[in-house]
Design brief:
By secondary structure, the protein is of the alpha/beta class. It has 2 domains: 3-51, no CATH class; 73-304, Vaccinia Virus protein VP39 (Rossmann fold, 3-Layer(aba) Sandwich), CATH 3.40.50. Helices cover 37% and strands 19% of the residues. The protein contains 11 helices and 10 strands. A 7-stranded mixed beta sheet has the order 3-2-1-4-5-10-9, with helices on both faces. The longest helix is centred in the first third of the chain and has 23 residues, at 3-25. The protein starts with a helix and ends with a helix.
């Protein structure tokens, strides 16, 4: 496919998504688009028009649809720059993360940042939490971003921020953070954690697209690039962590992000979600809140932020 045809196709898909989204917003539009998305003849036409912007049965299937239009995907040179720019000021869901991290990180504590780009969360959160001088913030990333992240940290004289390609380094850490990252991996994070020799004491998940329908996959359009991602069923997602020994301390909505699938509201994440899990039997540390069986009690407080 030539670059010209690829650009035109991407523009056509984006135009179609906008127009159909506008139709959906009209009175009766939801019902109309729902019928178009489910009737065999119109569904085939709709899928052809939407291209990669639709529901797929698996992450590899979504990745195959995205590949001709990926423009580098996760290795797009603009990708880490975008994340660093977004980390200049907190987004709404960052306040929930900061709340639960407050007082959690002691001297010599280890934080494992799953898919943490160039360490953008470290630089942002350190301004608000004043992280201890002896703590280690370890970012797990792609090889290209590991090297670049190390260079940035060296230039800033930052010794607390380190980078790794080894998932096993997450074993036994005080806090595992997965912010805007876990849905890009084919293996569920809960399964990866269950295979560690020692589980993290706490897990903070933020900016993740969870849905009410069955687990599927789709393609996110990042403007300059496109990447496949998993849409996890919300109930199954929580149950998977509970099954490996964690309890939900809190949950919240990440209002700054959403993902809408035309004609299929059950596969739309409106908005993204966040969770704070604690390994059962762990005593609550200073800061954060005690376990709330009706998780989500802090949504209103953070929505105001």
């Amino acid at each position: 496919m030539s670059s010209t045809i690829r650009r035109l196709r991407v523009k056509q898909i984006k135009f179609t998504v906008r127009r159909l989204g506008a139709v959906e917003a009209l009175p009766g539009g939801n019902r109309l688009m729902r019928r178009m998305a489910t009737w065999p003849i119109t569904a085939a036409i709709l899928n052809a028009m939407l291209g990669y912007h639709r529901v797929f049965n698996s992450l590899p299937e979504a990745a195959a649809a995205a590949r001709p239009y990926a423009e580098g995907g996760h290795e797009d040179p603009e990708y880490p720059k975008l994340h660093m720019s977004l980390a200049e000021v907190p987004r709404p869901s960052d306040y929930a993360a900061l709340f639960h991290m407050r007082g959690l990180i002691d001297d010599r504590a280890k934080i494992f940042d799953f898919g943490g780009s160039l360490g953008n969360l470290f630089y942002l959160y350190d301004r608000y939490l004043n992280l201890p001088p002896d703590c280690i913030w370890l970012v797990f990333e792609l090889p290209a971003w590991v090297e670049l992240g190390r260079n940035v940290a060296t230039n800033r004289g930052e010794n607390r921020l380190q980078f790794t390609r080894k998932w096993q380094d997450a074993a036994g850490v005080e806090l595992l953070i997965a912010s805007g990252a876990l849905h890009y991996f084919d293996t569920p994070l809960s399964q990866m954690v269950s295979e560690l020799p020692e589980k993290p004491s706490h897990i903070l998940i933020n900016r993740t697209p969870l849905i009410d329908g069955p687990t599927k996959a789709t393609v996110q359009d990042g403007g300059t690039h496109r990447v496949a991602c998993v849409l996890y069923n919300r109930a199954e997602f929580v149950t998977a962590f509970e099954a490996i020994g964690y309890e939900v301390v809190d949950s919240w909505k990440a209002w700054e992000l959403s993902l809408k699938i035309v004609g299929k509201p059950e596969f739309s994440a409106l908005p993204y979600s966040g969770f704070f899990f604690r390994l059962k039997g762990q005593a609550p540390k200073r800061g954060g809140i005690k376990t709330d069986p009706a998780a989500g009690a802090n949504d209103k407080a953070f929505e105001a932020g």
